[in-house]
Amino acid sequence: xxxxxxxxxxxxxxxxxxxxxxxxxxxxxxxxxxxxxxxxxxxxxxxxxxxxxxxxxxxxxxxxxxxxxxxxxxxxxxxxxxxxxxxxxxxxxxxxxxxxxxxxxxxxxxxxxxxxxxxxxxxxxxxxxxxxxxxxxxxxxxxxxxxxxxxxxxxxxxxxxxxxxxxxxxxxxxxxxxxxxxxxx
Length: 185
Ligand SMILES: [Zn+2]
Ligand SMILES: [Zn+2]
Hints:
The protein has helices at about 25-30, 35, 45-50, 60-65, 105-110, 125-145, 155-165, 170-185; strands spanning about 10, 15-20, 65-70, 85, 90, 100. It has about 180 residues and is mainly alpha-helical. The protein has 2 domains: about 10-85, no CATH class; about 125-185, no CATH class. The chain is elongated. Bound molecules: zinc ion (2 copies).
């Protein structure tokens, strides 16, 4: 038996059934996408929204600023671009907390950074910052550790000690801290 499709489009943002007249903004965005505009094929754009697994929103959601209108021409998603963005909750892979991927973040993510459609941030802002700091610390550390301990300056040793302290690496912290103390005596 053939699966019967729903006849009406359900707004992905407010989850309400919307007829053609209530989704005019996203329909006009869709109509103006290059490959739709230049195609000989006549697409039923409203039906497209019904089947779409990509993001769009009704006029009310856009007008009331729950959704943000998207620019498909700026995206890396030629055949199924975002037509509108709305905020969603995601779970951080590092700390497990929920965080909001806001509609403004999404616009930046897909239109400025040109990330592909399926790509979403994995971590909350706090963890992203921590990861960034960790990467910088790691780089500093590996630069200094290339040298022999005897060749390291007090500043460099202090940097190592500080990083190991923040990472809670007690043994290494103690090891380099002793060297600093010995040098200062
Ligand atoms: Zn809506
Ligand atoms: Zn997190």
